[in-house]
């Protein structure tokens, strides 16, 4: 097991290197940069500034390959992701300050996905082709088909029109007011978890149906075991490996959704931080947030792979 984990960790190095390189290059291929943003702001205010001086201040006067080497040098030698061009603050504290919001939103959304997807998927499999099964499958298709940003926009629009409700603009800390914090997060978490719940429902139903047709399940029923014991003790554990894979891969959906949902509901997380950084072409901040997201995805995939050994004793890592 230890050798496997070490090999996987070593394989993450070229993966993260490639992701960071692609983001670094693509950002600079987009028309416009931080200098253009600052000069546009000054033009509105009636001020002027020397473009060359701004480029030197932001470190954009050097060739692209020099900027690239500098960025990696700061990261590897000093553990720094650079300085935000917009705020002038170090990137790492900015990301760490926003990360708890995104983590809380992601955990709640994942909980919503599992809490809805697993029970409905199991029920649909056990009651195949009944009215409950058709209702569960229709719900799954609806969740998958409805984009989270569209649902969130409609919820805020009609809630404000009908009940005069709008999302709070100030974050309620979890340690100060847990109930108020949960009220603030539960709606965006539910909307974000819907798409994942639909996928989890469909995969759970398919895998449970496949396992229920196996000989050892028929033997368990022939012994007179109750349905709950057969499903929970025998069928579910064998059906969970593909489901766990889907749930683990949903982290990319969480990250992409968090960027939009945090902006719509005014949640001060890393997703909203990246949107604000993209608006002003803050290269260092966008690169730093993307690198953190890439590390999270790689770590989640490793945890999913390691969970296979627990779910299926036949899986052994060497």
Task: Please outline the major beta sheet.
Answer: none
Beta-strand percentage range = under 5%
State the end-to-end distance. 5 Å
What string gives the helices and strands in order? HHHHHHHHHHHHH
How is the quaternary structure best described? Answer: single chain
Count of DSSP-assigned helices: 13
Global structural class: mainly alpha
Helix content: over 70%
Q: Could you say which overall geometry the principal axes of the C-alpha atoms support?
A: globular
**Mean pLDDT figure:** 81
What radius of gyration results from the CA coordinates? 24 Å
Ranges with pLDDT <50 over ≥5 residues? none
Number of strands: 0
Short description:
This protein has 318 residues and is mainly α. It has helices at residues 2-29, 34-45, 51-58, 64-78, 91-126, 131-145, 148-163, 178-212, 215-222, 227-249, 251-264, 270-279, 283-311.
Structural features, described:
This protein has 318 residues and is an all-alpha fold. 78% of the residues lie in helices and 0% in strands. The protein contains 13 helices and no strands. The protein has helices at residues 2-29, 34-45, 51-58, 64-78, 91-126, 131-145, 148-163, 178-212, 215-222, 227-249, 251-264, 270-279, 283-311. It starts with a helix and ends in a 7-residue tail after the last helix. The relative contact order is 0.14. The model has no long low-confidence stretch (mean pLDDT 81).
List keywords for this structure.
mainly alpha, 318 residues, globular, 13 helices
Tell me the layout of helices and strands.
Blueprint: H1 2-29, H2 34-45, H3 51-58, H4 64-78, H5 91-126, H6 131-145, H7 148-163, H8 178-212, H9 215-222, H10 227-249, H11 251-264, H12 270-279, H13 283-311
Helix pairs in contact: 1-13, 5-6, 5-8, 5-11, 6-8, 7-8, 7-11, 8-10, 8-11, 10-13, 11-12, 12-13
């Amino acid at each position: 097991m230890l050798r496997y984990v070490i090999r996987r960790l070593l394989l993450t190095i070229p993966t993260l290197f490639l992701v960071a390189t692609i983001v670094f290059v693509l950002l600079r291929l987009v028309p416009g940069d931080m200098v253009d943003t600052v000069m546009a702001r000054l033009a509105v205010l009636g001020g002027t500034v020397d473009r060359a001086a701004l480029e030197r201040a932001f470190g954009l006067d050097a060739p692209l390959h020099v900027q690239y080497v500098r960025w990696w040098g700061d990261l590897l030698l000093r553990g720094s992701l650079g300085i935000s061009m917009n705020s002038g603050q170090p990137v790492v504290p900015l990301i760490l300050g926003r990360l708890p919001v995104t983590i809380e939103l992601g955990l709640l959304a994942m909980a919503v996905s599992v809490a809805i997807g697993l029970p409905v998927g199991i029920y649909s499999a056990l009651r195949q082709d009944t009215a409950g099964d058709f209702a569960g499958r229709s719900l799954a298709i609806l969740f998958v088909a409805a984009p989270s940003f569209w649902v969130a926009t409609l919820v805020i629009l009609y809630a404000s029109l009908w009940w005069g409700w709008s999302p709070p603009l100030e974050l309620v800390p979890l340690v100060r007011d847990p109930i108020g914090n949960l009220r603030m997060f539960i709606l965006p978490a539910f909307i974000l978890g819907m798409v994942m719940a639909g996928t989890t429902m469909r995969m759970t139903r398919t895998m449970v149906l496949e396992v229920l047709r196996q000989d050892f399940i028929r033997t368990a029923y022939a012994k007179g075991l109750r349905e709950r014991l057969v499903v929970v003790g025998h069928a579910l554990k064998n059906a969970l490996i593909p489901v766990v894979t889907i749930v683990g891969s949903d982290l990319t959906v969480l990250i992409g959704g968090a960027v939009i949902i945090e902006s719509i509901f005014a949640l001060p997380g890393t997703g909203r931080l990246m949107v604000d950084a993209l608006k002003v072409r803050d290269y260092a901040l966008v690169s730093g947030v993307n690198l953190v997201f890439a590390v999270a995805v790689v770590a989640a995939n490793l945890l999913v792979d390691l969970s296979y050994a627990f779910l299926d004793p036949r899986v052994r890592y060497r």
